[in-house]
Design a protein that fits this description.
mainly alpha, about 0% strand, YfbU_alpha-helical_sf
């Protein structure tokens, strides 16, 4: 990573402020500031190592569409008899995303559902992690394609739920 002298100076001043505001974390800020002051370019990336790449608006919207689909599935399943086998289908509940391969997606849905307190019906436990431990995006995309084709997407019949879940 390359930084101009102006960018370095700006970050140095910000780090000095952070050192004063958060003395318990000052050591890390001092290390980062020292790297910037001395031009140790190899270590610039360390300053930003906790910043993830951005999700585009389109990626975020796709995730919200997936959550909307699961909202529809959840509410539609509630209309079926409790003993209906569809309640136990492995895709009947939103499982989240793989923490290792889809970590950014998992973090976004956790942010949206837990931090912003949305989609309460998809919170199946007190502190959901939304880590499916297996890649889910392609599965959700296939389901989303079938759900989008439904005439009344938010009120699904048993047959439509089966179609969305199984294809």
């Amino acid at each position: 990573m390359e930084l101009t002298k102006n960018e370095r100076l700006s970050l140095i001043y910000q780090l000095r402020i952070l050192e004063a505001l958060y003395p318990e974390e000052a050591t890390n800020f001092v290390h980062n500031r020292t790297a910037l002051e001395n031009g140790f370019t190899l270590h610039y990336d360390w300053i930003f190592e906790n910043l993830r790449d951005e999700l585009s608006k389109e990626e975020c919207q796709e995730l919200l569409d997936i959550l909307d689909m699961y909202r529809a599935i959840t509410f539609s399943l509630r209309e079926l008899d409790e003993g209906d086998v569809l309640h136990e289908h492995h895709l009947a509940k939103f499982r989240g995303f793989d923490g290792n391969k889809e970590g950014q997606l998992m973090a976004y849905v956790r942010y949206f559902i837990v931090d912003l307190d949305r989609y309460d019906e998809l919170k199946y436990e007190k502190l959901p992690s939304f880590n499916s431990h297996t890649s889910m995006l392609n599965t959700y995309r296939e389901m989303l394609s079938r759900w989008s084709a439904a005439e009344k997407k938010h009120i699904l019949s048993r047959e439509q739920i089966c179609t969305v879940l199984e294809g």
